[in-house]
């Protein structure tokens, strides 16, 4: 008999709130988390807006001194979200078998600030040591940390979590751009299904609102330049959309094998039943206009869940607010859902949260789970001018009361990696 997998804890740090409750409340208020960039001086940049996490304080995280140099902004978001998720799940870590406790996170290498690179290149001692292969300069751990500040490994966050919580089971990191955390959640499912773990910390974090990222995505023409009206700049599926908004944050889920959760008396929030993945095999920077790849990802997730498109009550779309992606995703949904596509509510959280890149998939699955809990669908805000090529029900501007038992959540990455997840209402059958 297949091992059933349930969600027992949720945690979030987003541009709309420093915890799950605040984030959800602001989503239901149709509030935008997009504003002018404050992390660096963007006054000379063509793109001056982003979705930043505001007011975040890391003092309460109690990071050990020896780990502090390796914990960047993205990692600290993850630590905060993880702390909330563990509390939400009611976990007593001392009672868990650490060898059957694992981590699967999505994340990118943390893109450093321009000043980190500039300062490194100006450090004559550093440059001389590197050129002469003299390691004496790095004898002090704080000096060694300078190197890590320039470029942190993608798996650092997962490693820090494993140390803090004594997690000795499978620990991995997926780095597949915008599909990273959805991919990580799928891997966590498989680890539990295969019996490699009974409980997993999964999700992802990202923080790349930096000079390099804003300049790079901006030069590719991927970012909105609607600087005069930040709160309305992200408009997925709207005819006047002109690009996505770079965001940051973290989301963490506690996932358990059903009997493990029941044995400890856990409150079961939902059941995760399906995961599908594919590659477009197309271009690095574009999605296929016909939705190829995205349709396969959705079909695979539905097949894995053992349900049909008609069983899905809501689709949490990737919905980036770019011209190509929104049309491509719409086409993919039509290919998979047929006529039922027109009767299935769809919305994009990115209209309010921006695009959280590696952490986007996990935040959107968390929102999907809350949608089942609350029977409320978050809206796609800033939807004003219909696009003839995007003619489905995008839940415009206001949340909608709706009976939701099953949700399909999509994450389609820059580069062509796709991941789709199915989460359903839990029934003790």
What does this structure look like?
The protein has helices at residues 20-28, 73-89, 114-122, 124-131, 141-150, 156-164, 180-193, 211-219, 258-263, 294-305, 323-337, 350-353, 360-374, and strands at residues 5-13, 35-36, 49-50, 101-106, 171-174, 199-207, 248-257, 270-279, 314-316, 346-347, 376-377, 400-401, 406-412, 417-424. The chain has 429 residues and is α/β, with parallel strands linked by helices. The protein has two domains: 5-112 and 151-424, Peroxisomal Thiolase, Chain A, domain 1 (3-Layer(aba) Sandwich), CATH 3.40.47; 117-142, no CATH class. It has a ten-stranded mixed sheet, sandwiched between helices. A two-stranded antiparallel ribbon has the order 2-3. The protein is globular, with a radius of gyration of 21 Å. 53% of the residues are buried.
Question: In short, what is this structure?
Answer:
The chain is of the alpha/beta class. It has helices at residues 20-28, 73-89, 114-122, 124-131, 141-150, 156-164, 180-193, 211-219, 258-263, 294-305, 323-337, 350-353, 360-374, and strands at residues 5-13, 35-36, 49-50, 101-106, 171-174, 199-207, 248-257, 270-279, 314-316, 346-347, 376-377, 400-401, 406-412, 417-424.
Summary tags:
429 residues; alpha/beta; 2 domains; two-stranded antiparallel ribbon; 18% strand
